[in-house]
Amino acid sequence: KYRPCLLKCISDGLDGEVLLHMGENAASELVEEMDTDALQQATESMDTADVAELLEEVLDKDAGEDLLESMDAQRRERIELNLSFDENTAGRLMHTDAISVRADVTLEAVQRYLRRIDKVPEDTNVLMVVDRDNHFLGAISLLNLVLHADDKLVDEVMEKDWRTINPEMSEQEVTRIFANHDWFSAPVVDD
User: Fold this and answer.
1) In terms of Cα–Cα distance, which of 20, 63, 70, 78 is closest to 41?
2) Angstrom distance (rounded) from CA 138 to CA 176
3) Which residues pair with 140 in a beta bridge?
4) pLDDT tens, 119-129?
């Protein structure tokens, strides 16, 4: 009875995360009231895995396609990558907006790069180190980034023995590994 009025009140400036935590019917009703621009604004601060979940669980096919088309190419590709993996797998859970850097740059260059980024993902505690072909080489913690001299290369301070997660690994296995190793994050890498 009060839902349409309530939805009108909260639709302006809505954080897309709210849509994931609403009941399916309420979220669907709210989305029907939103145009693509409003939906795009509501989802722009969400990480890619959450947007993929929203596309699959809340939006109808047309609204989902419109939302994807409204995004810049890089964000759209990252979300489509999430959606390419089966549900309940590491590939679907991964945050494709993780920050990656190259091993052959100085820590000073990485720090400058981080300052220029509009939005560093909220849970960032390490940066993935990749080669020119985007192959995973290791990781550097933010702590190591600030503790070492600016003129050192990433390669000199990065951790190279980093265990990776296969994108096809089940969500349950990922959970078990994270719990056993007390991990906060891990790279998802296809061999």
Assistant:
1) 70
2) 22
3) 127
4) 788 778 899 99
